[in-house]
Each structure stands twice: as structure tokens, then as C-alpha cells.
Amino acid sequence: MKTEFILQAAQAVNAAILSSESAIESLDREIGDGDHFINMKRGCATIVTMYDELASLSPDAALQKIGMKLLSTIGGASGPLIGSFFMAMAKTVKEQGAETLPQIAAVFAAGVEAIKNRGKADLGEKTMLDVLIPVSRTFTQLAAEGAERAPLLDALKREAETGMLATRDLIATKGRAAFLGERAIGHIDPGAKTSQVIIQTVCDLALG
Ligand code: ADP
Ligand code: MG
């Protein structure tokens, strides 16, 4: 993983989040407090403006800087979670590198583990983790099996979509939606939706 790829991904994600505005907005209005899109938009815009500053850094230093910045700019429940995702990825890139698919899978898994720890949440709680955990498991498994890059990335996109759609039928036990009890059923979780959009965008970029 090169810093150049991280910067391209930031730009592509920024564009993808902006074009998903209506979908994300309506979801957080239904089962949240309506700020998730604005929070993510602010985070993406900030990272895009850091292009020159990040370009001269190693991949791990760039990820660390992005994580620290997102922690303070996204806000809400998701800011600290996404910030710790990037900082844990940075640490793992530094420790073991991120050249091969198994290494990149391990980097992603470390990021997801940090979100689980920070948010004290797991699979099935109607959060972003319902996308991130299955994607990470599939990534680790397929990379270990020696899967080719293109089918692996396609599988990750499908897993993200399935996980996002599955949040519709869940009751939330974490975050603001937890206050709604059964009334949250029938609505996709906004954080799961943005996670799916981001994974799809980064996979498409990596597919070239
Ligand atoms: P807030 O809930 O403070 O308004 P956002 O609207 O930015 O923050 O983010 C809401 C999203 O954060 C939810 O849709 C959910 O996916 C995610 N989320 C909330 N709490 C947790 C948690 N404990 N663990 C993982 N994800 C969470
Ligand atoms: Mg919100």
C-alpha cells in the first residue's frame, strides 16, 4: 500500500460520500439524529485538503495523521471510532508492512478490532460493524487461501452490501438507534451504509 493509493482513496471516498448524500441523510434522520452525513462530509473534506501535507509521508504516518484528524473533525459517536480505525491500521502497517493481500487483510482486521474495542460493540448490533466484521473475515480468509485480487475485491464488495442490507432487520443495541427499540427495525443503519459506500469505492479504485 502506497501513500499515493491512500490519497487517491481519500478523494474517491469524498466524492462517493457526497453523491450518497440523500441516502445517508435520510437513514440518520430515521433512526439517528440526522448528522451522520454532515459528520462524514466534514471528515472527508478535511482529509482531502491535507493532500500536500500527507503526500510526503510514509503510508503508516499518513494513516496515523488521518486518524488523528478524523478523531477531532468527524465528531459524534462515529468520529472516535473511525479515528481509532485509522490509527490501528497505521500501527499494523508500521509493524508488518502492507504489501501482500494477507498483510493488507491483517491491517484492515486491526482497524476493525479497534472499532469493536472502542465502541464495545460486535456483530449484530445494527452498526457499521455489521459491514466491517464480515468484510474483514472474508478478506482474511480469501487472502489466506491465495485468492486472486479481482475476485477477492468483488467478494468484499458483495459482503459489504449483504451486511449493510442485513442491518434493516436488526434491533440496535448500541448508539442512538438503541433508544428506538423495535422501531429501528425496517431501517438500514446509517454507519453501515457509509461503510458499504466506502468499501465499494476503495475496492473499485484497487480494481483499477
Ligand atoms: P451520533 O450517533 O453520535 O449522531 P453519527 O451519526 O456520526 O454519530 O454515527 C452514527 C453511526 O455510528 C451509527 O449509524 C452506527 O453505525 C455507528 N455507531 C454508533 N455507536 C457505535 C458503536 N458503539 N460501535 C460501532 N458503531 C457505532
Ligand atoms: Mg447521528
What does this protein look like?
- This protein has 208 residues and is mainly α.
- 73% of the residues lie in helices and 0% in strands.
- The protein is built from ten helices and no strands.
- Helix 2 runs antiparallel to helix 10 and helix 8 runs antiparallel to helix 9.
- The structure holds adenosine-5'-diphosphate and magnesium ion.
- Adenosine-5'-diphosphate (ADP) binds next to helix 3, helix 6, helix 7 and helix 10.
SSE topology sketch:
Blueprint: H1 3-19, H2 21-31, H3 36-49, H4 51-55, H5 59-73, H6 78-96, H7 101-119, H8 129-144, H9 149-166, H10 190-207
Q: Under the CATH scheme, which architecture would be assigned?
A: Alpha Horseshoe
Small-molecule binders: adenosine-5'-diphosphate, magnesium ion
Distance between the termini: 14 Å
Structural class: mainly alpha
Brief summary of the model shown:
With 208 residues, the chain is an all-alpha fold. The protein is 73% helix and 0% strand.
Output the keywords.
0% strand; mainly alpha; binds adenosine-5'-diphosphate; Serine Threonine Protein Phosphatase 5, Tetratricopeptide repeat; single chain; globular; binds magnesium ion; 208 residues
